[in-house]
Write a structure and sequence with these properties.
single chain, alpha+beta, 2 domains, 17 helices, about 15% strand
Length: about 550
């Protein structure tokens, strides 16, 4: 199967019809019944497939300039134009056969027959192990696969096997001694601009050619193996050798191959364990070996946000426990710095907010990994509010202020509920982070509803103080409601009225105190009855 020429990607049209398509068909019938989303059997497969499509467009069809990028958004190329553009690399995208295979180690092709039985058992894995969330190793030995059961996937059709392989290479968590992580580390966060059609969702996340080439890597490295590493013997990490951006073409950020894997195809008809398709050829196992490519140095992927510490080295953001929400706006949508560490959005998000006019959505997804263990898959969308250049600075200033104010109140809410429930000095067993999580969830609708209002106020050069006061009221109401709900949630006889009253008093002091109001930019009471303005961008 060739991943350029053959249909293998499941997608759904606006009419609801599901089809299996080749990559060059993503804009088919764009004006009549466009494809609107991917329809893989797993959400992590959808996340991997859209990165495959974006990477292919960036490789074969990158726009020359901003004008072409904007024009193609609503006037996509024909399927034939895309097919011809991708044919140059089609020979590099074979999933099976005796030669180079997509995302598979070229040096492993002759090793299967030469392996001794003991080595064979260690190096040949069931195909289900290629799925990141499938239990392996210690989980199986200790019989703790309680929710995701072992052996559920015994065979994969070539399409699902190709997707599973790309998903693993793209997310590549830690896999034991010498099994390398991906170019963005294990389980990276991906943030994309999302639109109402599959074509637009892909094209919005493709950068102009010259911008992309300046992002990372060495543009002079144009040999096929420097773009598609599976075309040559693997650049292994034996003797500590690393692969830096100087060693590869920038496009390898999409085609990085940290794991040494070679699929073993079986010419036996069987049903796919994921999509249930009856296939004449299936994959039941794969050969693997450690010491694959070790990507080191200042790699920067166009689809991930980064933080930069004092050493100046960019580090990709990874999903963390607690989910995805507006508390991540700073760093995912808007750059922010605290003097020691700066956080910046993905290059495609930053470019869109600078050049576009339409409010769309941010799609954020990725695995929350604990080394080799997948704790959770996060997949969420949030609205994006786009501002014209004239008010971008003021908008960013006030958005940062309202998020920082929410962070203060979330912390105070959790602290005061702990104070109300437990005596001072008591060692609290358990996790109270659910208090902060509830606060963020309950204030999120108000936050996203507030952004267009703030934009309109700034466009009209209106006073934003009433807006900030309304947000302050949202914070106060939500915090007090959560406190009232949780401060007496334990046994009635264990409640201490004095302790609860004192915690309430401390909460009120924080909610109406100087720190919160100065953070928001609200007037702050000062001695003598005068009032002091807290912010410098209030437009009062």
């Amino acid at each position: 199967m060739n991943l350029i020429q053959d249909p293998w990607i499941p997608a759904r049209r606006k009419s609801g019809k599901k089809e299996i398509i080749a990559p060059w068909q993503i804009a088919d019938s764009f004006d009549r019944d466009p494809f609107i989303q991917l329809a893989a059997p797993r959400p992590d497969f959808n996340g991997a497939l859209i990165q495959f499509l974006i990477g292919l467009l960036q490789t074969c069809f990158a726009p020359r300039d901003a004008h072409e990028w904007r024009s193609r958004l609503s006037h996509p190329p024909s399927a034939e134009q895309l097919r011809k553009a991708c044919l140059d690399v089609a020979s590099s995208f074979e999933i099976s056969g005796d030669g180079p295979r997509f995302m598979q180690d070229l040096t492993l092709r002759g090793e299967l027959e030469a392996l001794e039985p003991a080595a064979l058992q260690e190096r040949v894995k069931p195909i289900g192990d290629l799925l990141i969330d499938v239990p392996t190793g210690k989980t199986l030995r200790e019989n703790t696969d309680l929710f995701v059961k072992r052996g559920a996937v015994g065979a994969l059709c070539p399409s699902c096997a190709a997707t599973a392989l790309f998903t693993m290479q793209t997310n590549a968590p830690s896999g034991g001694q010498g099994h390398r992580t991906g170019i963005r580390g294990g389980g990276p966060l991906t943030t994309l601009i999302l639109a109402d059609s599959l074509w637009a969702a892909c094209w919005l996340n493709v950068l102009e050619g010259d911008i992309f080439l300046r992002l990372t890597g060495n543009p002079e490295k144009r040999a096929p193996a420097e773009q598609f590493p599976w075309l040559a013997p693997t650049r292994t990490s034996q003797e500590g050798r690393g692969t830096t951006p100087e060693d590869a073409h920038p496009i390898q950020i999409f085609w990085a191959m940290p794991r040494r894997i070679r699929l073993i195809f079986s010419e036996e008809s069987d049903s796919c364990g994921l999509c249930a398709t009856e296939a004449g050829t299936v994959v039941r196992s794969y050969l693997t070996k450690n010491l694959g490519t070790n990507y080191v140095g200042p790699w920067k992927h166009s689809l991930s946000p980064y933080y930069v510490a004092g050493d100046g080295m960019p580090s990709p953001v990874h999903p963390q426990t607690g989910g995805v929400g507006y508390r991540h706006w700073l760093g995912w949508v808007q750059s922010v710095s605290d003097g020691k560490t700066s956080r910046e959005p993905a290059a495609v998000v930053e470019r869109y907010l600078q050049q576009a006019n339409d409010d769309l959505r941010l799609w954020a997804f990725g695995y929350d990994m604990d080394n080799m263990k997948a704790r959770c898959w996060y997949d969420s969308c949030m609205p994006l509010t786009v501002c014209d250049a004239r008010i971008q600075e003021d908008f960013a200033f006030h958005v940062a202020a309202i998020i920082k104010s929410a962070d203060i109140v979330a912390f105070e809410s959790r602290t005061r509920i702990r104070e109300a429930l437990f005596p001072k000095g008591c060692e609290v067993k358990g996790d109270l982070s659910f208090v902060s999580k509830r606060f963020w969830q309950e204030t999120e609708p108000a936050f996203f509803a507030a952004l267009p209002s703030l934009r309109e106020l700034l466009r009209n050069e209106s006073d934003v103080i009433p807006f900030l006061e309304d947000w302050h009221n949202v914070l106060v109401r939500t915090s007090q409601s959560i406190f009232n709900d949780l401060s007496q949630a334990g046994a009635f006889e264990a409640a201490d009225p004095k302790r609860i009253a004192l915690a309430w008093h401390h909460l009120r002091m924080a909610l109406f105190g100087r720190k919160l109001k100065e953070t928001l930019g609200l007037p702050v009471p000062v001695s003598g009855g005068a009032r002091k303005k807290g912010g410098t961008k209030s437009n009062a």
